[in-house]
Amino acid sequence: MEGGSGSAGQLDGKVMQTFQKNFVQVQSILDHNRVLINEINQNHESKVPDNLSRNVGLIRELNDNIRRVVDLYADLSVSFSKSMEADSGHKRSRQQG
User: Fold this and answer.
1) pLDDT of 3-14, one tens digit each?
2) What dihedral angle (degrees, nearest 10) is formed by the CA atoms of 67, 70, 71, 77?
3) 27-36 as b/e, with b when 16 or more CB fall inside 10 Å?
4) Is the separation of the CB atoms in 68 and 46 below 8 Å?
5) What's the pLDDT tens digit per position in 16-44?
């Protein structure tokens, strides 16, 4: 019985590491997006043609970053679901055993 709870503990630890890693990445991307948005706003307000042209690239980068955040959250969702399924399976096997 202890072996089952030990593997559940390892799984929980692995899931927590994944969560932490992904949340750190998400926060870093969101922080960078804040900088991008500020620069985009400043460029827009300046009405300088070169600055407005630069916004095209900045907006593309912002969109790419948003896609990355969505992908990271999707990975978190899958990890969480797998963790819940595994945890549920361990509880069932202990109850049956």
Assistant:
1) 445 555 666 777
2) 180
3) eebeeebeeb
4) no
5) 888 899 999 999 999 999 999 999 999 99
**68: number of Cβ within 10 Å:** 14
Q: For residues 3 and 89, what is the distance between their CA atoms, to the nearest angstrom?
A: 14
18 φ/ψ angles, rounded to the nearest 5 degrees: -65, -45
Indicate the pTM of the whole model.
Answer: 0.73
Amino acid (1-letter code) at residue 34:
R
Write out the two tokens for 64: 């790419």
The Cα angle at residue 78 between residues 81 and 3, in degrees rounded to 5? 55
Structure tokens, 16: 């927590």
- How far is Cα 57 from Cα 92, in angstroms, rounded to an integer? 53
Distance CA(11)–CA(87), nearest Å, equals 9
Distance between CA atoms of residues 94 and 20, nearest Å: 29
Tokens read off for 59: 């907006």
